[in-house]
Write the structure tokens for this entry.
Amino acid sequence: MRLGAQLYTVRSFLQTERDIERTLQKIAAIGYTSIQVSAIGPIKPERLRALCDELSLEIVLTHTNPDRILNDTERVIEEHDILGCQYIGLGAMPDKYRDPKWYSYFAADFSEAAGRIAQAGKLFMYHNHHFEFEKMGGKRMIERLMEDFSPEEMGVTLDTYWVQAAGADVCEWIDILQDRLHCVHLKDMAVIGSEQRMAPVMEGNMNFRAIMAALERANTKYLLVEQDVCLTSPFDCLSTSYQNLATLGYR
């Protein structure tokens, strides 16, 4: 399993091409060898690939605008070819599909694009939050997603924090989804007073030794560190997560 950084963590430092270059340099200096592209400013895919190649950073996953996945599928695939990126990610289910009376249209709308992505040798990746674990008619939304898309049509970028926030067992869901977990998001949960807070990996209360063992069993390829909200510099948070995971042998 390769250790990478989810760029959403440092999104405030990615809105110009110059800052993208600076930020990638800092990510590489921490020790990361792969990245997920998310929430960055305008930059041509050729330029982004060149910057990453110079720093020996592999682009393994994106979060791509859902409208583009649906309506500009071929160009999205071409851009991922330029980036050398196999996984085309959806960062969140668009709000309208979260309504129980509208959810059934999600598969109807995205199945064609997912199929075209698969035919191109890539994989559509769904990133979970906590709402997918709410039951609709006695069945969780994430269970319905698994019924609506085969593993060849859709992988899952499992987010450890949001599974925990939903009150679900992270290791259990790694086992359930093991044939779809090519990439995962690693983030920890701490408690400050009565509030749950995102924390660098192994700085909170989640059992990451058990989580990493479960991911090993699932043959996960990429471990992407993410922290949406940081109490200190997001670069420091990424560095702390990297150092903690390095003590377990992951780089």
About this structure: The longest strand covers residues 58-63. The first helix runs from residue 17 to 30. The chain has a mean pLDDT of 97.
